[in-house]
# Entry
Amino acid sequence: MTVDSVQLTVILQFGAIVGDGFPVPHITKINMRRLASKDTRPLQKYKGAVKMCMVCDRIEMIKNGANPYFVKELETGYVVIGDNQHFYGYTLFLYKEHGNKTELFHIDTAERLKFLEEMSIVAEAVSKAFGVDKMNYELLGMGDDHLHWHLYPRVDGDIENYGNNGRGPVWWYPPEKMYSDENRPSEKELTEMKRKLLDELDKLV
# Structure
């Protein structure tokens, strides 16, 4: 599938290409490079709009040894540290397949149970690695319909005075703050986070 200039304008202006949990400016740069080079993998039709799967893109980077956030491969998915770390220890668990498997009920029973079990194991490892008060779990898919879990470690006061007197879900915290470049870990910080999480994962699997 090729993308003409009109489609590209629609994509960039109206957000037909977006990615759950991934900063939009980063996505835009990747998409523009891919579109300019005619590299349309993995490009899909999504309700009439051109859509590029950011999760597939990240998985391809893992397979090529080029994803610095990659922690560990499990049977059903890949564990990665989130790009932005306002919620320290924020981790994603990316399901290995995409295609037409965009809902949990699209996966056969044994595979689905394994995916849920492994997600729970990753959450336990995150909790132990980063010393949290409560774990939050999200599987959304309104931006990228590739199945992937957002695992948010929560501590008291982490959304400051937003929400209900400082309490509430992560999306009550302003996205411009959550996805600020100030919240990106340094190379040294990322290496340490990955080590801590991998240590806990290796104890559980």
Summary: Residues 1-50 have pLDDT under 50 and may be disordered. The longest strand covers residues 148-154.
